[in-house]
Amino acid sequence: MHIRLLIVATMFLLGATEGWGAINDWTAIGPSGGTVNKIVYNKATPSTVYAIATGGFYRSQDGGGSWQLIKSDFLNAPQDLAIDPSDATRIYAVASDYPCLYVSTDGGASMSAVTTLPTAVANGWQVAVSQNGSTLYVAAGGRIFYSVDRAKTWQERTAVSAYPAALVFKLLIDPTDVNTLYASARTSATDGGIFVTHDGAMTWQTLLSGNQSTSLSADFAINATNSNQIWSARSDGVWASGDKGVTWTKAFATTASALAIDPSNPMILYAGTPYGQVFRTADAGATWTDVTGNNTAGGLNTLAVNPSQGSRVLAGGLNGVSGTTTSGTQWSVQTAGLNSTFMLGFSADPGADRIYMNVQSGGVYYAAAGAASAATANNFGSGGLLQLSGQTTLFVTGMLAQPGRLSASLSNGLARSTDGGATWSLVQVTPLGTSDQVFSFASWPANPQTILAATATSIYRSADGGDLWTPATSGLPANTVVGRFAAASSDPSTVYASIGGVSAPGSGTATGLGVYKSTDAGLSWVPANTGIASSQISALAVDPTNALTVYSSTGSALLKSIDGGATWNPLTWDAVASGNVYPMVVAIDPKHPSILYASTVSRIARSVDGGMSWQTLRASNLLPWWSPSDLIADPKRPENILVATTGSGVQQMTIAPDLSLTVAAPSTPVGVGAVATSVYTVSNLGPFDATGVRVRLQLPATALHISAVGSGGTCTVAANVATCVFGIARSGASNAITLGATSPSAGPFLLTASVLGDQPDPKPSNNTLTTTESIAYLADLSVTATGNATAQVGDAVSYTVVVKNAGPNTATATQLKYQLAPGLTPGTVTSTGGTCTSASGLVTCNVGDMAASNSVTVTINATAAAAGTQTSTATVTSTIKDLTAANNSATSATTVTAVPASKGGGGSFSLNYLLMLALLLVMQNRARWMRKPRYWPATALRENN
Predict the structure, then answer these.
(1) What's phi and psi for 944, nearest 5 deg?
(2) Cα separation of 885 and 253, whole Å?
(3) pLDDT band of 903, cuts 50, 70, 90
(4) Cβ distance 599 to 583 under 8 Å?
(5) How many CB atoms are closer than 10 A to CB 734?
(6) From its phi and psi, is residue 508 left (phi > 0), alpha (psi between -120 and 50) or beta?
């Protein structure tokens, strides 16, 4: 949490889509510039210049006009830079964390770590290289490491100070003596001094000691032609020594933070101040000239003079690099490619389609219409912010973009612009017209005249757009400070604030007091901190569509409230993946409030379900650490997420999941009136979750009985369009849609399917499918034939042939042909439908138009005329297209055997013969009976009765 402003002198796919940054990756969009710690010319090739900045190691091949980032993956920003005087292709850089020392052996085209230093070395800050290039000194904290073989092996020499937190800020080697080394070091919490060794850091002598404010040297310079002459830049001026630092004389009574001697003329010396001023002496310090002019590099850390053209000077400071070719009479900004700015925050004006961004020491910039680069407001021009501030350096601590109005907080008041920052006017306000600046603003789209402002000591409120201000602390504890405001866009009177308390206004470290809430636009406040009343709140955001839904973060949890802060519940957050910390910033998608963005000091993550689950956008183990100070989703194109980093400018990513559609459609014609079924698969090929996924299925206007069912989604049908909504499509997941419809007529059946989500798609070619199904009049005729399986020659046989139409349509002009086997003699033919004729053993039945699901049975009688297997064939045809030809014919087989032949000479008789004999015998007996008398004896009668 900001307590007070401290000014400290430190020792950016698709051509059809506008406003996209890197697709699913990060790109730097500026603003260019940032803190530059050291600039060094290549003496052999002065057009080549090297610089170290908070963003990493840079090289320029046009004399410092533009810069190329060579290495950025330092754990912390590099602090010092040196070139081997004997080999200009060899460049060293020092960073604070092990391996601390880095080297380039190819003129700065690449740089790699030197791993020969002891692993315990940390807090690396300075490097010095001897004239012959063999001897190197590295200062790490207060310790000194020494190499005589170009960093192959190392020895630890005597520390400059035994103080555990000692730090060597500057190290200077005598160009004529490898054993003479000067150091400026912190030796206690309050003290420091200048030290020298003449025996290669075996022993140290104190040249100056005392309070750090006057005894530390922010920079050294040495006369290469007379190494007895040393210059020291201190907070109380520029000091000179002609006896290797034994005695000192103040040469210039202005605070200095950077020094450089003209290599071609050691009488010329440049001195830079922590306030951005540059002074020049041409007579070895006797007189000085202010050559600041239009230099906009900010508080200066480094100066470098071209070794072959002394009029060319580069100045590096908190705001980047400025260059002069006229010894300082005119300067130009030379920050192209230098993305090392320290960003404080964002404020968007959706009406102007601008996102404003605040550079710690560089003023106000903006990205317009989603541009992948930052443009500057009037920071340093006539009537610009620097001029209005009345200072030599520019510090804008807070800003607020509103419809038609832009405000920026300066140390002497509130600068306001009505033309997007092109021109500014200063509003002297009370009580804000003090040295305290505004760190946080709040206002409402529907109530822009009401503005809340938080300084390091209090909260103020204006009801007239910022002209008049009154304290707005009613209901707050005494000595309250605000970390963040979160105004509810959906309610022009609701605002939340993360609150801390101090013992006295503007003093001490704030203790956490949780979240407070105002429902009357800041006139009064009430606690909204149940369970978090003693927590430091690091992140605070309110749902743009629901003033009761609020997110906050403490040191141990990411929280959500759905009742305006009355209760808070923890959300899922992978603290381990986030460096064991919880978010410092939470941002909400302005159009899709279920999408959240959150960042820790090292990780950036995205949630599409209101914080229940998260995907990493930038992992915590990537370097450099960005330490985001703010996040924002572009109000006009919320798939663009912008991150304000503390050393790499603004980074932007376009979230663009790759949605795709595939289809399994009928491969054969579908009958008129039959249901044609297609199965669509919508997939998210990643790399990020998609929201608002919608599939639109366009059918012909004649389509009937349309149905759509989506797995995991909801489908609706309106007229001839089916729409399926899936809401969230996880990266790598797929959903199926089953689409059915009928067509009342034959012909092509055109279906068009498309998928889209809330986010743009990087590969639109797989988002649309057009398929043409074939609709035809179809029938599935089939025929079966059954009959006698066996018979003897002469026997009557019968066959039953059944013709069926399984549909879906009427089989027109259906005809059955039944070819009797040659061994069968045709008989009668009957049919349940149509007419049949028979000729030469071929039975032809003209069934006519046969409706779906109907059948016809034909019975064919015949006589077995010849022995053998008699196979007959039935075939059905129609003028309609038949779906299955395999069932359009059938056979029936009868095994016919011959009548057994008669046998002779064996005394045996045939059956017919025996029957004839029996008949003759009966006739003979009858004849004998007829010749007897017609009366019977009584005895005979009795016997016969």
Answers:
(1) -70, -25
(2) 107
(3) low
(4) yes
(5) 15
(6) left
CA angle 848, 854, 859 (to 5 degrees): 70
In the predicted model, is pLDDT for residue 920 greater than 70? no
pTM: 0.85
Number of Cα atoms under 13 Å in the Cβ half of residue 661: 28
What is the CA angle 500-504-505, rounded to 5? 75
> Judging by beta carbons within 10 Å of its beta carbon (0-12, 13-18, 19+), is residue 854 exposed, middle or buried?
middle
Tell me how far the alpha carbon of residue 944 is from its chain's centroid. 125
Q: Which two tokens stand for residue 112?
A: 């790699």
- CA atoms of 694 and 650, how far apart (whole Å): 32
C-alpha dist (Å) from residue 918 to 165, 551, 791, 909, 915: 145, 120, 30, 12, 5
The length of the chain, given as a count of residues: 945
In 3D space, the residue among 204, 81, 221 whose CA is nearest the CA of residue 144 turns out to be 204
Distance CA 312, CA 306 (A): 5
For residues 172 and 174, what is the distance between their CA atoms, to the nearest angstrom?
A: 7
What is the token pair recorded at 182?
A: 């000067």
Domains with residue ranges and CATH for the chain = 32-333 (2.130.10.10), 340-584 (2.130.10.10), 668-775 (2.60.40.740), 779-897 (2.60.40.1530), 914-944 (no CATH)
Q: Ramachandran region of residue 713, left (φ > 0), alpha (ψ -120 to 50) or beta? A: beta
Instruction: Report d(CA 761, CA 769) in Å as an integer.
Output: 15
CB 896 within 8 A of CB 792: yes
pLDDT classification of 697: cutoffs 50, 70, 90: very high
**pLDDT (tens digit, 9 = 90+) per residue, 726-763?**
999 999 999 999 999 999 999 999 999 999 999 999 99
Amino acid type, 265: N
SS3 339: strand
Cα dihedral 198, 204, 210, 216, rounded to 10, equals 60
Amino acid 3: pLDDT: 31
Q: Cβ atoms within 10 A of the Cβ of 772, count? A: 12
CA distance 606 to 655: 10
